[in-house]
Write a structure and sequence with these properties.
Oligomer: single chain
Number of strands: 16
Shape: globular
Radius of gyration: 26 Å
Low-confidence stretches: none
Distance between the termini: 40 Å
Largest sheet: 8 strands, mixed
Structural class: alpha/beta
Length: 573
């Protein structure tokens, strides 16, 4: 009888192989004090040196297998080994408290780990994982213990562990490691991100996998559903082998579409673009054949730190994205902070309804000292590619005009300073407030483009907080009221010769795509991994037929009627 354990699907695919338990070695020690502190400091420095040599090898291996952006994790680890704020307290503890090197290292590193883990910030929590990984490596060298080495695996396995550190993950050989499953972690943990880069299936956060599996057990990992099957039956093995083959065949078939244009079967071209958070997302954008970037969420530059990013820091990030996109359009959204995204160093007031409060363009116009450096950085980067700038959460024409005036002022300032700025920068707004959608014909005369942010537009139109489970039934992307607003915005832009994109989740939704094609949407921006599936779907749709479908959908009474209509008209496609 097989045993099924549920976890979080972290990386797509199906893996079938024997379990390889990545068991932690015994790193316990008995000696807590020393009467030879100078010798202990020397031992500690030798362990640091050996750890650096080892980490440099792992880093180079990661760069070769995964690319420079993923190898950067180990640059962070090497920085920890050189950080005086970490190293000095350990040496002082050995010198002043006569602590043994292992004890001093454990006490100081644990102190840092506790501080970082207590922070209410995903980025800082990841720093705790970095320190834990590095200090474990140094401790192993101090104790003369070898850490597990996944790079020596030479047969097909699935890795089973409590967690996989970044250095463990970087040592996985794709040829042999079919996938991995862990007790802890989430979709945003280092190991999950790297598993997606390696394109191996992964399930994380199972809570108990290491208690349920023994070395050599046959295990199936379903990275599509989050299921892990231990000791599968013959029937389960056959079913999952078939699912695995189908997954590979589908992935290969999709790759054929990478360099194809996104066209309907009757020849209508639309643009399929990617949403990104940082320049590190660019390899996925290219691998999935994105035709541009429809949303660069710049707030990630501001998060996970104690101070504002400087103008120069921002310039470097924007320049990198524009250069690497090689002339393809890049839509950069200015700072969208507030609501569910907070910056501790801004000390914003607590609000009853933060989603309806002091956020995004409202905050930026009220605090131009925050807004101006970002505008300057964007303008400086504009000569390196095809830049479009988008203001979020615009509710009135005055807000757009005020933001544009600040931008033009900074453009003039830069020119006075002798800095070159492009004269071909598209300027648009996110349409996420019903008042803006209702006034789209007026906005269309002044903006260069619209991008519909459906995540917020739906919750504001339906007056239903998307974070509230009790009213989640009202989060209805296909509700005829939403479709009518989308139609109104697209038609208003087209009347003025402008274009409309969409960067909310709805843009990559397979039920919504036929409707959006029919409504005349010009650009669909989504997570990079959804692009090829969307391109295949669009290839099989006729715009003429989808226009008729959309016309019928906006006259439906309920969301269920719309879904049934889409299914009945596209099931043959």
């Amino acid at each position: 009888m097989s045993n099924i354990i549920k976890g979080i699907a972290a990386s797509d695919g199906v893996a079938i192989a024997k379990a390889y338990l990545l068991v932690e070695p015994d790193l316990s020690y008995s000696q807590e004090t020393t009467d030879q502190p100078e010798q202990e400091i020397q031992k500690f420095n030798d362990a640091l040196k050996n750890s650096k040599i080892e980490l440099t090898k792992i880093r180079n291996n990661a760069e070769e297998q995964l690319g420079a952006d993923k190898a950067a994790i180990f640059d962070a680890h090497l920085l920890v080994l050189d950080d005086p704020e970490m190293i000095n307290p350990i040496e002082e503890k050995i010198k002043n408290d006569k602590a043994s090197a292992p004890h001093a290292l454990t006490e100081v590193s644990q102190n840092f780990i506790t501080i970082f883990e207590s922070m209410d910030n995903e980025y800082m929590k990841e720093r705790a994982a970095d320190i834990r990984d590095v200090s474990k490596r140094v401790l192993a060298h101090l104790l003369g213990v070898e850490l597990p080495n996944p790079s020596i695996i030479d047969e097909s396995v699935v890795i089973v562990g409590h967690d996989l550190t970044p250095s463990d993950t970087a040592q996985l050989n794709k040829q042999y490691v079919q996938g991995f499953v862990t007790n802890i972690g989430g979709r945003t943990s280092h190991s999950a991100i790297m598993s997606r880069s390696l394109e191996i299936p992964a399930v994380v956060g199972t809570k108990s996998i290491t208690d349920s599996v023994e070395q050599g057990d046959m295990v199936i990992i379903d990275g599509l559903t989050g299921d892990v099957i231990i000791d599968p039956t013959e029937d389960e093995l056959k079913a999952y082998q078939h699912k695995r083959e189908s997954f590979f065949a589908d992935r290969e078939a999709l790759k054929q579409l990478r360099d194809e244009p996104s066209k309907t079967k009757d020849g209508q071209h639309v643009e399929l673009a990617a949403n990104i958070g940082t320049p590190n997302d660019l390899p996925g954008v290219k691998d999935n054949g994105a035709e541009g970037i429809g949303l660069y969420r710049t707030e990630f530059l501001y998060m996970g730190r104690d101070t504002m990013p400087s103008e120069d820091e921002q310039f470097v990030a924007y320049k990198k994205v524009l250069q690497e996109m090689n002339g393809k359009r890049v839509v950069v959204r200015t700072l969208d902070i507030g609501g569910d995204k907070e910056l501790p160093y801004l000390n914003l007031p607590k609000e009853m309804n933060p989603f309806l409060g002091y956020r995004a363009i409202r905050l930026c116009l009220d605090q131009p000292e925050i807004f101006r450096p970002q505008l300057r950085a964007l303008l400086r980067a504009s000569t390196y590619g095809k830049l479009n700038i988008m203001f979020p959460m615009v509710a009135t024409i005055k807000e757009f005009r005020d933001a544009k005036a600040l931008l033009l002022e900074e453009k003039e300032n830069l020119k006075q300073e002798g800095i070159e700025v492009s004269d071909d920068i598209g300027l648009g707004i996110m349409v996420e407030i019903p008042s803006t959608a209702a006034l789209a014909d007026v906005f269309a005369k002044e903006v260069d483009f619209f991008s519909i942010g459906t995540n917020d537009l739906i919750q504001y139109t339906m007056a239903a907080d998307r974070m509230s489970e009790r009213v989640s039934y009202l989060y209805q992307p296909y509700n005829p009221s939403i479709l009518r607003l989308v139609k109104q915005v697209i038609e208003a832009s087209h009347k003025e010769g402008k274009w409309t994109g969409m960067c909310g989740e709805m843009a990559g939704d397979e039920t919504a795509i036929p409707l959006l094609i029919g409504l005349g949407l010009d650009e669909f921006s989504m997570s990079a991994t959804s692009i090829l599936k969307a391109r295949r779907q669009i290839k099989n749709l006729s715009q003429t037929e989808m226009t008729q479908l959309a016309d019928r959908a906006i006259n439906c009474a309920t969301v269920d009627e719309v879904v049934d209509l889409v299914k009945s008209k596209t099931s043959h496609a």
